[in-house]
What we know:
By secondary structure, the protein is mainly beta. Helices cover 0% and strands 46% of the residues.
Amino acid sequence: RENEDSGKEQKTASYTVTFSIPSQVSYYLRIKTKDKVGNWSGTETIFIFKYDITLPNSFIITANGSNPSPWTNANNFLIEWTGTDTGKIITAWYKLEDPSGSITTGSSTAFTQNPLTGSFTIKVGTQGIGTLSLWLKDEADNTGGTSTVNLRYDTTSPTIECLWPNRNEWFSEQPVVSARIKDVSHPLYQGEIGTITILIDDKEIMSG
């Protein structure tokens, strides 16, 4: 981009140029010199100045393919994200808070620029619902675009509580059995029940 001093001849050994920056583009400082007998040098690009004040934004983050993640009994999670930025992203920073309150921070440089996508794996130390926050930093030192994803980790087996009838009770007709099934290992979450199977004398009578 040309500035207001473009083309002006300067006769001092050192020179300071001041100009305003109206928009977020690349600016070039180019200089050529002339000696006393009129010989001109070629034009040299002294430096390129890239102006970028836009925060990284508009990115989507998932854990094991969704947000929140599916419930899993493995504590390894694949974090994937996509985003946009006017400049070049140099670091993805993250903070993981697991259900115990423990906080893990770190960074990742495993991503591509065009399109802007990244991924990394992380382990959760405590079962329950953890929260991972991710934000980006570009080459102009702009930091922003925070997004979060919940990591759902469960290693507790479900429990069964018989409500009626009492154990070892005799009946003259087929009884109706009432039971409560729980899968709760942390006050902040309840897992998802899969298949329920009922056995009588080690024979399956119902599954669903």
